[in-house]
Specification:
The complex is a heterotrimer of chains A (about 140), B (about 230) and C (about 180). With about 140 residues, chain A is α+β, with helices and mostly antiparallel strands. Chain A has one domain: Beta-Lactamase (2-Layer Sandwich), CATH 3.30.450. In chain A, about 45% of the residues lie in helices and about 25% in strands. In chain A, strands 2-1-5-4-3 form a 5-stranded antiparallel beta sheet, sandwiched between helices. Chain B has a 5-stranded antiparallel beta sheet with strand order 4-1-2-3-5, with helices on both faces. In chain B, helix 4 runs antiparallel to helix 7. Chain C has a single domain, classed as Rossmann fold (3-Layer(aba) Sandwich). Chain C has 5 helices and 8 strands; from the N terminus they run E-H-E-E-E-E-H-E-H-E-H-E-H. In chain C, the strands form 2 sheets. A 6-stranded mixed beta sheet of chain C has the order 4-5-1-6-7-8, with helices on both faces. Chain C has a two-stranded antiparallel ribbon with strand order 2-3. The chains are: A alpha+beta (about 140), B alpha+beta (about 230), C alpha/beta (about 180). Chains in contact: A-C, B-C.
């Protein structure tokens, strides 16, 4: 386990991370908010969500993706790429950010969004985040 | 190991006058074990006397006991005296320093497990331990420390039932399908060690239906099957 | 086919995942990830659930759910407790006052719509400092004692079976009493 918490690790690049998230929200119609979380459910950065809900969303994203990973292992379909939820009034997209240790991106959209557009832009954002976020090469 | 000699009587404090009638042994012991022990002030150490003979020492605060050597004889005398028609047992307050002396001579044992074992074996004919009667309704005041129980599966079931309801031996035996003598032994042990009390409130009792059997719950029954398979 | 559910709760590091794995004989599904909380000396932590099952006679099944212990995952506790037949709350003897440790988990169980049989298990007594061991002993001796408390090493299958025996005794008696009332 790294000696520094992910929150401390992200601090030097926080402004860039926020910029990437703001760009994502700006570029995608119907995208209401986005959260970056640690694998174990701590909120690291966010745009567009209320502060008091962000920590719960981060924890929920962690749980959802961990369950999806477990399902993927049971089905032997490889490592998790994305998890999409579709509901009557909105959609949620969750992606892993390929850094070490991995982090999570959760994008919450209203019903006007098109999932294809959300997915494409979110993956672009994940690539930019992966290039920006610190990665523990030793792991 | 050197043979331990019991301390002389003049090392005991607060000897009762011969004119005072000591309280019944089991009730006196239970009061010291349960919350009522605080009424006895700072005196937590007592000696067990049987017809003038010293059987051992108890520390109800630290929950420890030391039996007078030979301990097996003292234990047998204690069990026999518990069911005597003529009361022979009494508890004599002693100074803590005296208990500590005995604890250095012979390794103390945990008090409640000792009393539990004494209670289990006190009545060879599976009779109730006085002052319990055959129709006494008993309820557990709390779950026993599991290091006390013999890890017999039926003991857990009796605990689970008696923690919720006061029952007599026949009702408990009928509801759980456990042999009467096992239930009586449990009642004796739980009462002597202070975990259980008699209950005279009819509202707290559970009336056993004669047809009630232990297999009433499917999950528990199936678990026992699984458990037996795994234990082989 | 009938399915029954037992849920295991307790603080991070109390041994919940280990206990579920022991009962599921090593075949439990795990959602452990790397722990990033520097205040917790544990490399991995459960973030969703542990899941294992045991085949019962007659085709029935016993499902075992381990919960994540951190408070930020408390939204999962009522979800996992739904439909449960009983609960095990584990207390880490080496992690501070036991009565404070169990409070959030017993509160979650108390919010269950029906009274739920509960067993508490004290783990890691051997690792605990003398002060913490004494605190656990005092907790064991406390006057209330309305819930059973068992010392358990969740790595030892026989000790885990004893915890389940106690829980099953309570489940059975709850059903027996319900029949008579």
């Amino acid at each position: 386990m790294s000696d520094a918490s992910p929150m401390a690790a992200i601090a030097p690049v926080r402004a860039q991370v926020d910029a990437h998230l703001t760009t994502l929200v700006h570029d995608v119609d119907g995208l209401m908010g986005v959260v970056v979380a640690s694998l174990d459910g701590f909120a690291l950065a966010q745009v567009g969500r209320e502060e008091e809900t962000v920590s719960r969303l981060a924890a929920m994203t962690s749980s959802m993706l961990a369950l999806a990973e477990a399902l993927g292992r049971e089905l032997a379909i490889g490592s998790l790429g994305a998890l999409i939820l579709e509901a009557s009034h909105g959609k949620v997209l969750m992606l892993t950010i390929p850094v070490q240790p991995p982090q999570l991106l959760m994008a919450a959209c209203d019903q006007t969004s098109a999932m294809g557009q959300v997915l494409w832009h979110a993956k672009q954002c994940v690539r930019r985040l992966a290039a920006t976020l610190p990665s523990d090469a030793a792991q | 190991m050197s043979r331990c000699r019991p301390a002389p009587f003049d090392a005991c404090t607060a000897l009762p006058s011969m004119a005072m009638v000591p309280p019944p042994f089991v009730e006196d012991l239970r009061r010291r074990l349960t919350g009522e022990r605080r009424q006895h002030g700072p005196v937590h150490c007592v000696a067990i006397i049987c017809n003038g003979k010293l059987l051992g020492w108890l520390d109800t605060e630290q929950s420890q006991a030391v039996l007078a050597e030979p301990s097996a004889v003292s234990l047998a005398m204690l069990q026999a005296a518990l069911v005597d028609a003529v009361p022979r047992l009494e508890l004599l307050p002693i100074a803590r320093a005296l208990f500590d002396v005995q604890a250095r001579r012979a390794r103390p044992v945990a008090l409640r497990p000792l009393l539990w074992q004494v209670g289990l074996g006190a009545c060879a004919d599976h009779a109730p331990l006085p002052p319990l009667r055959r129709d006494s309704c008993v309820k557990l005041g709390r779950w026993p420390d599991f290091r006390v129980l013999a890890h017999r599966h039926d003991d857990f079931r009796i605990c689970a039932l008696l923690i919720q309801h006061a029952l007599d031996v026949d009702a408990c035996s009928s509801i759980l399908g456990v042999p009467r003598e096992e239930v009586q032994a449990f009642f004796n042990a739980a009462y002597l060690s202070g975990y259980a009390h008699t209950d005279t409130d009819p509202a707290a009792r559970l009336t056993a239906a004669p047809a009630a059997r232990a297999g009433g719950n499917a999950l528990a029954r199936m678990w026992r099957d699984v458990r037996n398979r795994w234990s082989r | 086919m009938r399915e029954y559910k037992i849920v295991v709760l307790g603080e991070m590091g109390a041994g919940k995942s280990t206990l579920v794995q022991a009962l599921a004989q090593g075949r439990a599904v795990s959602t452990e990830v790397r722990n990033t909380d520097p205040s917790a000396d544990k490399p991995f932590t459960t973030v969703a659930l542990d899941y294992g099952d045991i085949d019962l006679p007659g085709g029935d099944r016993l499902r075992l759910y381990g919960t994540p212990g951190q408070i930020r995952f408390d939204f999962l506790w009522p979800i996992l407790l739904e439909g449960a037949s009983g609960a095990i709350v584990l207390v880490n003897a080496d992690a501070g006052p036991p009565d404070q440790q169990i409070r959030p988990y017993l509160d979650a169980v108390d919010r269950h719509p029906a009274p739920l049989p509960v067993v508490m298990g004290i783990t890691r007594m051997d690792d605990a400092s003398p002060t913490r061991r004494a605190a656990c002993e005092q907790w064991l001796e406390r006057d209330e004692g309305q819930l059973p408390i068992v010392m358990v090493d969740p790595r030892d299958p026989m000790q885990v079976l004893t915890v389940m025996d106690v829980l099953m005794s309570q489940i059975e008696c709850q059903a027996l009493v319900a029949c008579h009332e």
